[in-house]
Specification:
The complex is a heterotrimer of chains A (about 325), B (about 425) and C (about 290). Helices cover about 40% and strands about 20% of the residues of chain B. In chain B, β13 and β14 form a beta hairpin. The longest helix of chain B is centred in the N-terminal third of the chain and has 20 residues. The chains are: A mainly alpha (about 325), B alpha/beta (about 425), C mainly alpha (about 290).
């Protein structure tokens, strides 16, 4: 922490990003009291997607293994609330949901040791779908029902729950980045074999990263479930929770912290705006944007902004040089 | 510098989000809305989330959809509902969103309609599962929800928790015993049950199977099918092998039609061929022709012969929708849905206010005169004796009520004739 | 008992044949163009609906299937030449291309599905074709299912022969085995890639037509078929067309068997299969590329 402050003192520019993020977070804290109820609901949804995107990027962005298991972790959190909701308060539900998700992540990590690339991705999607149909089967045949009621919390409560979760997640990301663990992750991303040569246990690091990143997803699921009042396997393990964060990070840019946040904010907001009036146009737009983003914005919209600014600066400098 | 730009972008986004929220007088609104009279109000706004597209689109098109829309048209043609506290007649305005048959979209829409659009009353969503999800939401915000296309058998236990939830459709709890009575009288000794893996299917199977067992009808087989099942040949052949006298398809229309098509193709002719939801729609009659559907039994039930009021309403309905080829006649819910709406309308008139709490109390405790006669809610469900019938059968192109009560419009034809070639 | 066996076999062949066609289409797209086409199911859906439109104009569905083949080919070919070619240009490595092309396919899936929704709506559709039953070996089988069975098997085998014997087929196989050497031998790799993508689309379209003959279909049907295609492709070995053929029939039979025992377990069985498969032998039955 002290190191951080010293760094900021030495190079004030570095402090700008965190400062603005901090300001935004503070603003968010007071929002529910100041604005229309529906805005709070909507922002809660935005924060949920930010959490999912940041979590996804923490592992997949860092290691290059595209995971589609996000919906599985989220779904486990949802079911945690559905099953245990009457017995524990919300913070505990989120913790248990997060732990359940992490356990699943460790399990997946351990058994997919040899899987790379496309196979790993397919496997993670398979986990999501398997959980969905298996739980449906068990619910129908063992419990004679398809879905469950979930204990209900007010949208203000859930907003603050997700808000605090986001802060915790952001702190975790920053801490990890600056730690040895984070540096090990970077080494792995740059070259797994080389990293292993210098003594990094890449398997352990990857699995740990996967587990940590999935905690927030499970916790977010546990929180959101309490807004829905009734859930079933299709809602809990909806594959969109796997696809959308990927889209959001690609759109926003995977390289920085701000990329996933921007992408998630833009898309979640668009979704809220369009779903009621134009549900299908929204999905269509998403597909088109995804294609365009991958083809033309490989580093996301923040990458584009970054390039524009760099080009503007170069032009300015060139102009200055020309005059000297 | 670049970081500053990126940050400004994020900040602008955030500011934008807040701006669209904005400070309004209703900022102090608490979760349950709090009722206030707005003197500038001219209309009563009914809002909701309906499945205009997706797998449940059929119901919005042909079940409850045409009913509530015609109800609104009829009321507005007379100038609206008279609301005493406003001392004027107020027309109804509809604010309905499409949930694309997706449950989480439905809950979001419903909440939006209540919290943001702040409608006066809400309409129910499609299907049993959606009703279950909507009931707690409606209750949380103190909004009356009169369910239409969907059941409530297991919700019955939770009704005490959801005083704002009502149901206007008869369901497995009255229909299963009625079906069992028919089987008993016609000497049907065995049955094969197929149900859909959805709340609708589980509710029905859990009612039908015990009801049949209680009349010593042997259950030869039970199969559950996923909603997207593509091939029921093995199930039909299994049913045939067991020699079950009755084949029951407790599913939604898609699976029912699949089973019907394949039964016809395989020439499977049990004594009783029962189709669940969708069987009692005129679309089934149109699709297959009256000779093919002859003898098919399904949930219901009413027809114009049930009462003069029903006949009159039916003529009005036919006339109103004569130019729309997508509107069919639902011989299960049609008159019952309308009766539910009539109850709500009269409750509003009696209460003289748009305050849901007051209207709810009247709705729950009064008797109303509707097209199905004297109608009232018992524990928030329309009382069993009010329904025009529970089971129907296609006979000569008419969906006859075949309950073993005085509501019957005809006797059952069992065994049904073999599929015509 | 015999009836049951006959039914399991015939249903297994029908499902297997359709699965094989679907999987071969995806396999050739991956094997040659290195694209894991997650929107494959949407092409199947398009095939079903194009057939349906022709059927509504009183065209025989089997004829319709043939008529839409060039349309499907063009659709696939053009998409490849525009989107995927551009992706190839901007992708750094082949690894990046593979993962990016998969993501692009996701986008394509959303686009195709929702465009189809706008055009054809969301209702379940079905049409009657040869619905009467015929008696084979003393048991009844619906005539349309019999026809689909024969056609599915025929198309699968024909396609396999095409790959083995024809010149284009040999070029395709050469590129899928080793693109560099194939290029050295004068094969226009990029062109073959686009053609393969087009052929994959044609196969998907055929599968869609056949499906529309015997089942209900709607604009949301794509995803489930894509997943089946992925399972079969992994089962058979990614990029191996003979593997896809074999895997399709195997999965078809497994599916029918499970469906017979308990229909609600079919999907559970499918996903279990792929999970176990990926853990035990990700390269599938025919080896293929890792």
């Amino acid at each position: 922490m002290k190191n951080l402050l010293n760094e900021f003192r030495a190079n004030p520019k570095k402090a700008v990003v965190p400062a603005v993020v901090a300001a935004a977070l503070i603003l968010l804290a007071f929002l529910p009291g100041m604005t229309k109820p529906y805005t709070t609901i909507m922002l809660g949804s935005v924060i949920m997607y930010v959490i999912l995107s940041l979590g996804w990027n923490m592992f997949s962005g860092a290691t290059g293994y595209i995971s589609l298991a996000t919906a599985a972790f989220f779904g486990l959190g949802v079911y945690t609330s559905a099953i245990l909701g009457d017995y524990m308060p919300l913070p505990l539900l989120m913790a248990v949901g997060g732990i359940a998700a992490s356990v699943l992540a460790i399990l997946i990590g351990v058994i997919t040791l040899r899987l790379r690339g496309v196979y790993f991705t397919i496997f993670t999607l398979g986990v999501v779908k398997l959980l969905e149909v298996l739980i449906l089967y068990l619910e129908i045949h063992l419990n004679g029902t398809r879905g469950r009621f979930v204990v209900s919390y007010s949208f203000t409560d859930v907003f603050y729950a997700l808000y605090i979760l986001l802060i915790v997640q952001l702190i975790a990301i920053v801490v990890i980045r600056r730690s040895r663990f984070g540096k090990a992750l970077t080494c792995i991303a740059e070259g797994e074999d080389a990293a292993q040569h210098i003594g990094i246990n890449s398997t352990r690091v990857k699995i740990l990263c996967f587990a940590i990143s999935s905690f927030a997803m499970g916790a977010a699921g546990a929180a959101m479930a309490t807004r829905w009042s009734y859930i079933d396997p299709g809602i809990a393990f909806n594959a969109n929770y796997s696809f959308l964060p990927v889209l959001m990070v690609i759109f926003g840019g995977a390289q920085s912290l701000l990329g996933p946040i921007t992408g998630a904010a833009v898309f979640a907001y668009l979704q809220e705006l369009l779903t009621t009036e134009f549900p299908y146009i929204y999905m269509l737009a998403m597909g088109i944007i995804m294609i365009l983003a991958i083809l033309f914005m490989p580093r996301g919209i923040l990458g584009v902004v970054h390039d524009l600014v760099a080009r503007a600066r170069k032009r300015k400098e060139a102009g200055r040089d020309a005059h000297t | 510098m670049k970081k500053i730009m990126a940050l400004l972008l994020a900040f602008v986004l955030l500011a934008g989000l807040c701006a669209c929220g904005g400070k309004t007088e209703s900022a102090k609104t608490n979760e349950d809305g709090g009722y206030k009279i707005d003197r500038n109000k001219d209309t009563i706004v009914f809002g909701g989330s309906r499945s205009m597209t997706g797998v449940y689109a059929f119901f919005e098109q042909s079940a409850y959809g045409p009913i509530y829309k015609m109800w609104v048209d009829d009321i507005n043609a007379e100038g609206g509902i008279y609301v005493k506290e406003y001392d004027k007649k107020m027309e109804i305005e509809l604010k309905v969103y499409d949930d694309t048959s997706d449950l989480s979209t439905m809950t979001r829409n419903l909440e939006k309609v209540i919290v943001e659009d702040q409608v006066d009353f809400i309409l129910p969503p499609v299907s049993t599962a959606f009703l279950y999800a909507a009931a707690p939401i409606a209750n949380k915000y103190g909004k009356i929800l009169v369910g239409a296309e969907g059941g409530s058998a297991s919700l019955k236990e939770s009704i005490a928790k959801y005083p704002y939830f009502f149901s206007s459709l008869n369901f497995s709890d009255t229909q299963a015993p009625a079906l069992a009575e028919i089987f008993k009288e016609s000497g049907v000794k065995s049955a094969y049950v197929v149900y859909i893996e959805d709340l609708h299917g589980t509710e029905y199977s859990q009612a039908v199977i015990p009801a049949l067992a209680s009349i010593s009808c042997d259950i030869k087989g039970v199969k559950s099918v996923p909603a997207d099942i593509q091939d029921m040949t093995s199930i039909i052949q299994d049913a045939e092998n067991t020699g079950a006298e009755a084949f029951l398809c407790l599913t939604y229309p898609d699976q029912g039609f699949l089973a019907l098509n394949q039964s016809i193709a395989l020439d499977y002719n049990p004594k009783v061929w029962f189709m669940g939801s969708g069987g009692g729609f005129s679309s089934t009659l149109d699709l297959y022709g009256k000779d093919m559907v002859q003898g098919i039994i399904s949930w219901g039930a009413w027809n114009p012969k049930s009462s003069p009021a029903c006949a009159e309403y039916f003529e009005h309905f036919k006339e109103h929708w004569k130019d729309d080829p997508n509107v069919y006649y639902d011989y299960w819910g049609l008159v019952h849905y309308y009766a539910g709406l009539q109850c709500l309308q009269k409750a509003i008139e009696t209460a003289g206010t748009l305050n849901n709490e007051k209207v709810r109390d009247i709705l729950a405790s009064s008797h109303f005169d509707t097209i199905i006669g004297d109608t009232w809610f018992e524990n928030n469900l329309i009382a069993a004796e009010c329904f025009m019938g529970n089971v129907g059968q296609w006979q000569d192109g008419v969906f006859e009520v075949i309950d073993r009560t005085d509501r019957a419009t005809s006797d059952p034809i069992i065994p049904k004739p073999v599929w015509p070639k | 008992m015999l009836v049951t066996i006959f039914n399991v076999i015939s249903s297994g062949l029908i499902m297997g044949g359709v699965y094989a066609i679907i999987a071969m289409g995806m396999s050739i797209q991956y094997g040659v163009a290195r694209i894991l086409n997650v929107s494959h199911g949407e092409f199947i859906m398009v095939g079903a609906f194009l057939t349906f439109m022709l059927v509504k104009l009183n065209v025989n569905p089997l004829l319709a299937m043939v008529l839409i083949m060039p349309l499907m080919f063009l659709l696939g070919f053009i998409l490849h030449r525009t989107i995927y070619k551009k992706l190839n240009d901007v992708s750094g490595s082949s690894g990046a291309f593979e993962s990016n092309s998969m993501l692009i396919s996701f986008g394509l899936m959303f686009v195709l599905q929702n465009v189809a929704l706008q055009i054809w709506g969301s209702q379940q559709q079905v049409y009657a074709f040869l619905q009467r039953s015929v008696n084979i070996l003393g048991t009844a089988i619906a005539l349309n299912r019999l026809v689909v069975l024969l056609l599915a098997v025929a198309i699968s085998l024909l396609f396999y022969l095409f790959l083995q014997k024809s010149r284009l087929g040999k070029a395709i196989r050469a590129v899928s085995q080793d693109a560099t050497s194939a290029a050295l031998m004068g094969v226009k790799v990029h062109r073959v890639g686009a053609i393969s993508f087009g052929i994959g689309a044609v196969l998907a379209g055929c599968a869609g037509s056949l499906i529309s003959v015997i089942n209900q279909f709607n604009t949301a049907m794509g995803m489930s078929y894509t997943i089946i295609a992925i399972i079969v492709v992994v089962l058979g070995g990614m990029g191996s067309v003979p593997g896809a053929l074999l895997g399709g029939f195997i999965l078809g039979f497994i599916g029918t068997l499970v469906n017979y025992i308990d229909p609600s377990l079919s999907l559970v069985a499918y996903y279990l299969i792929i999970i176990i498969l990926l853990l035990v032998k990700p390269s599938g039955l025919m080896g293929g590329k890792a």
